[in-house]
Design brief:
globular; Jelly Rolls; mainly beta
């Protein structure tokens, strides 16, 4: 396991930087993050490179010995939202040739067997995955994939998980708040993970969860950048 490096910046509004080599953050397994059924995963990220022949992962909910029940990453110049269900992987690709070095708000919704993608609060596309996701009690890794590979070069400001499928208007309101770097999350119903630019404890390397579920992330190598 990589050692934790000194963090940059002081307490305040920060984002997390991952170098794409060995930086990541980890949230321990929690019943509140083991989601059966509908959910909404929202991240505000700035990606620094394309990944053509492989996948790189923004967030994975799995460990090295289990299949995943929700995953968000990039591959072949596209975003990919993935889950494992009924004995196979189900991949939902969207937003080809995403812009580099630009803040994007990505919301992925699981609504039954349907996957939906929203970019900066606007609906983009959907796909019937043909199966609901299996429910697995896994930890969450931010910035790296399954086992010790598929690291991603990014800055990430918000990581939000709702244990329900948000409506179009809720996602639009959420995106507006994130664009304004707001401290409070406007949609709290079903919120089980809330990592924000205002909840980073850079001195101690902890990204505090504001949802009330104590799903704090520990930074390993990943560094705070002051905004």
């Amino acid at each position: 396991m990589p050692t934790r490096r000194p963090l940059l910046g002081a307490m305040g509004k920060h984002v997390v930087f991952c170098d794409g080599i060995d930086d990541y953050a980890m949230i321990q397994q929690s019943d509140t993050l083991t989601i059966s059924g509908d959910m909404t995963l929202t991240v505000m990220v700035k990606l620094h490179k394309y990944y053509l022949g492989t996948k790189a992962w923004i967030l994975v909910h799995r460990d090295t010995n289990e299949e995943a029940d929700y995953v968000l990453g990039v591959s072949a110049n596209k975003f990919v939202f993935t889950w494992y269900g009924n004995g196979s992987w189900h991949d939902f690709y969207f937003y080809t040739n995403y812009p580099l070095d630009e803040w994007l708000i990505i919301s992925c919704v699981r609504r039954g067997t349907i996957a939906e993608a929203y970019i900066n609060g606007s609906f983009l596309t959907s796909q019937d995955m043909g199966s609901k996701a299996d429910t697995l009690p896994n930890p969450i890794a931010i910035g790296r994939g399954f086992s010790w590979h598929d690291f991603i070069n990014m800055e990430i400001a918000y990581v939000l998980i709702h244990k329900n499928a948000l409506s179009n208007s809720d996602i639009e309101d959420l995106s507006k708040a994130l664009k304004n770097w707001e401290q409070n999350i406007p949609i709290t119903d079903g919120l089980v993970l809330g990592l924000t630019p205002h909840s980073l404890d850079c001195e101690n390397g902890i990204w505090n969860d504001i949802s009330g579920n104590n799903n704090n992330a520990i930074l390993y190598g990943a560094r705070c950048l002051w905004i």
